[in-house]
Amino acid sequence: MRSPLPRAVMTRLETGRLVVLSVLVGGLVGGLSILLRAVLDAVVGVGGAVTGYAPPGTPGEGGLLIAFGTATPWGLLALPVIGAAYAWLVPATPGGPLTQLIGGYHARGQWPGVLAQLRTLLGTVLAYGSGLLIGRDAAFTMTGQLGTRLMQRVTRLDAVEVRALTLAGAAAGLGAVLHAPLAAAVFVVEVLYRRFEFEFEVLMPCVLAAVAGSAVYGLAYGFSPFLSVPDVQVPAAAQVPSFVLVAALVTLAGWLLLLIARWWPAPVTGGWLRPVLGGAFGLLTALVAWQVMPGVLGDGSGFVQLAVSGFTGPEGLAQGAWRWALLALGTAVAFGGGVLPSVGVGGLLGAGLGSVLGIDTATSTLVGAVAFLTVTLNVPLAAALLGVAWGGEALLPVALLASGLAHVLSGVSGLLPTQLTSRRDSGVHAGGPALLPDTVRFIPRRALDAPATPYDAPATPEPDAAPSADRELYRRGVPPSWRGARLHLLSLPPGVEVIGVVRDGTVRLPRPELRLTDEDELVFLARPDAYVALEGILRLPGA
């Protein structure tokens, strides 16, 4: 039956549901992130014992500002094996954690299955622990998506809620590992598109989940920042051109990287040669670590900490260049597609350029990290917020200048293949049948000379078919606010009518006094534009 509560109260309850679910998902992902960090620390310890080298870490994640050991050739032979295993566990489609997150959202919530996501998580943990170019954030991004999967098992979520909460879970995982919940929330809604566009509808769920996840994660590991940066002052006017030069040069390096990354043909990187390419990348990493510098191992965040602490000089250019080369080659097989590998490359290049130009290396390191992250992932605002979260509010003017310059100069290329140019390209916002929720089945009008087909027959995909101006049939579940209501009390827009109710496998006539249940399905006869209007009304809070 209809709720006796006033509509204003119902609106608050419906809105409060998403708020509560966002907080719960954030808390759940925060708890899972605590377990993940313990696993990563153990795997990193084993990896360091095997390769003979442990790179420095960041204070926020319990790392030390010193590298231990010397890479041994026999231990480094494990890298090709792990590289091949990673390329096998993480196929080209659906790709790495961040690629999966973006692609699934644009496909209207069609994320890979649980087993595929668990394989991706296993691959990222193994690759990160061995020292390959996988960011620590990748495993947390995947854990956030799995957290929403767990939430689906304990409560019923509709398609819109699943999409919003999956992004919110990823924001919670990223906020925990980066120790920057607000920046992580903005990152998730910004990284979906290559242009300066956002998913404003899911921003608040991402903020709530990221804050809740960071709060739970901090209870176990503390609330220290990801990077320990000395007091950064607002650059003097005379130094601004030097920082602009640093941002421009790092932007050029990022643009060249994207240019090289496009050379890899998709049939090669996605076919049976993919594990071979992964093994070759592991072998190349091992050779560079053995013959040139072991500092190419890890995601580079620990070396960024050394740079902001003043321990990196012009040699940062060489180390950043080697990491740049590995990232350019490894992105074809899903290496380096997260946040921290780009931060490592850009930060080291910025530190080396700052040392050469004689400016503050802590600021130039963060400027380089912001610019390079903007180029590779197309997240100018989130990159600037990350720089401010790590370096302090005094960094805000130069961080915004660096990210804005990098975004304008680099165009709309990026490392993430599922990233779309703008909102209009997304299946979530596309016109025609794509506007309909996943629970709705669109049945196109049958031509007069076409043979009849059973109503319950499986739908044949017709990607080019679009609804005409005539009325069509639609079938969907009963919206939550209609459950218990009688048919004659439903408020439908003009051009929409209920012509049947599917109950217990049979189609019943829509009698005015028929009361709807949770298990019913409604059959509508409507003009496509009118039905889209109905779905828009049903998405409103309290509808």
Automatic annotation (TrEMBL):
Q: Name one GO biological process term.
A: potassium ion transport
Give one GO molecular function term.
Answer: chloride channel activity
One annotated Gene Ontology cellular component of this protein: chloride channel complex
Q: Which superkingdom heads the taxonomic lineage of this protein's source?
A: Bacteria
Q: Would I find Coiled coil among this entry's keywords?
A: no
Domain RCK C-terminal, chain residue ranges per copy? 460-540
Q: Topology relative to the membrane, per the entry?
A: Multi-pass membrane protein
Where does this protein chiefly localize?
membrane
UniProt-annotated stretches for the region Disordered: 451-470
Look up the signal peptide feature and give its range.
none
Any single Pfam family the record assigns to this protein: Voltage_CLC
Q: Where in the cell is it found?
A: Membrane
Q: Which residues cross the membrane?
A: 65-90, 111-134, 167-193, 202-223, 243-264, 276-293, 324-353, 365-388, 394-416
Q: Supply the InterPro entries for this chain.
A: Cl-channel_core, ClC, ClC-type_chloride_channel, RCK_C, RCK_C_sf
Q: Which UniProt keywords apply?
A: Chloride, Chloride channel, Ion channel, Ion transport, Membrane, Transmembrane, Transmembrane helix, Transport
Renumbered to this chain, the Low complexity biased-composition regions fall at: 451-468
By what name is this protein known? Answer: H+/Cl- antiporter ClcA
Give the species this sequence originates from.
Answer: Deinococcus metalli
